[in-house]
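Hi all, long-time lurker, first post. I run a small reading group and we've been trying to get comfortable going from sequence to structure in the token notation. Rather than ask abstract questions, I figured I'd post a concrete chain and ask someone more experienced to write out its structure so we can walk through it together at our next meeting. Sequence below, copied exactly:
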Amino acid sequence: MAGFRRCALVLALGGVAVFSGPGQLATATPRPLPLGGGMGVALPHGVPMAEARRFHACTLTAVGYDAMDNLIGITNAHCVYDDDGHQWPGDEVLAHSAVAVAAGQREAIGRVAHISGGNPIIPGPNGIGLDYAVIVFDRDKVVAAPTIAGVPIRRIAPPPPPGAHVCKQGITTGLTCGVMLRTSGPYIVNTIAEGAGDSGSPVVAGDALIATQWVTGAGTAMTAILADLDRRGGPGAGFRLATA
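-- Answer (accepted) --
Happy to help. Here is the structure in token form:
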């Protein structure tokens, strides 16, 4: 759990997978960027994109569509707040992927539409919740990629029983695997390791997306997040995966 505190502090200070300097990211790419679970996004935490020199990167749990046919991304809520109680609803979002970096992509591709309560370890300004954030992407700039590390993800499913083999894909440590230990309400406990920047990593069992990871060994079940999205309404309600 100490590793998560380090991740949260680095996020607040602007040190997770940070891009610095005006020359590293240039003009917008002319074609829509493929983005899916396990790929990255970077947020300037309220600084206008044209002025930003530091970006706070996290991993996308999933990309799909909501009931209004918005193109939606899901990541962790704590990617959009800090330990001092600041949060950035409406924050612009930049792609952080090999394709985006190679293309010199610097134009915002979407905005944060909702920030839930945080996780039980670091609740954040909205109190304890499910630790997810909703991003609405610009469909002229993003196209949904229905795979995670080359593995087709075809469905969202409840967490599997203890002992099941599960894996996560993050932008920092890549693919790491472990076993499911148990559930605790809407949360899951596993043996999967992660590092700074991996927050929001999709946790999969076979071809099923089961959770978003927010710390080494713990995350939130996707079924709980979907239920909360539908209860709340607005962007993300009726979420369905982009599938192959």
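A couple of things your group might point at:
The longest strand covers residues 174-184.
The mean pLDDT is 84.
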